Amino acid sequence: MVRLSPLKIFMRKLPPKFIRIVCKIEKALTSPILAPLVALFLGVSLVPAKHSYFLKGFGYKLLIPRDSFLLAIKILMGGSYEEAYSLGEGDAVIDVGAHVGIFSIKAARKVRERTCYSYRT
C-alpha cells in the first residue's frame, strides 16, 4: 500500500488551473533575473552560468541546472527527505533516479565511511 504525503493529497484536490499557475510562478522564480534575488532572500550565493547556476550555501558548492534551482534549495535546506529516512555513518546509499544528484551529495556527507551510489535513469 502506497501512503501519500499530506502535500500530495492536498495537491490532488486542487484544480488543474491552480496547479498550472503554481508551475508558472516556479518557472518565473527560477529565471536568470529573479533566481539570484530568491537566493539572496534564502541566504545563498547564486551565480548564473550558461545553462546552470553556481550555488554556494548550506555548506555546499554546486553547479545545478536552472530548472532544478528550487528543488536543490528545498533538499539542501532539509526536511524533504529527512522525513522518510535517517542515515548514519557506515550506512550504504543507492540513489536510483538521482536527477542531478543533490540528495546523493547530501547523503554521502552523512555516510562518510561507506560509498554512495548514484544512478540517473
Q: Which percent range fits the helix content? A: 25-40%
Number of domains: 2
Mean pLDDT: 76
What is the strand tally?
5
Q: Count of DSSP helices? A: 5
Placed side by side, the strands forming the largest sheet appear as 1-2-3
Shape: globular
Helix/strand structural class: alpha+beta
Give start-end ranges of low-pLDDT stretches: none
* Major sheet: 3 strands, antiparallel
Spatial extent as radius of gyration = 16 Å
Give descriptors for this structure:
121 residues; alpha+beta; 2 domains; three-stranded antiparallel β-sheet; two-stranded parallel ribbon; 5 helices
Could you characterize the architecture of this molecule?
This protein is of the alpha+beta class and 121 residues long. It folds into 2 domains: 1-77, no CATH class; 81-121, no CATH class. 40% of the residues lie in helices and 20% in strands. The strands form 2 sheets. A 3-stranded antiparallel β-sheet has the order 1-2-3, with helices on one face. A hairpin with a 3-residue loop joins strand 1 (45-48) and strand 2 (52-57). The longest helix has 14 residues, at 16-29. The relative contact order is 0.10.
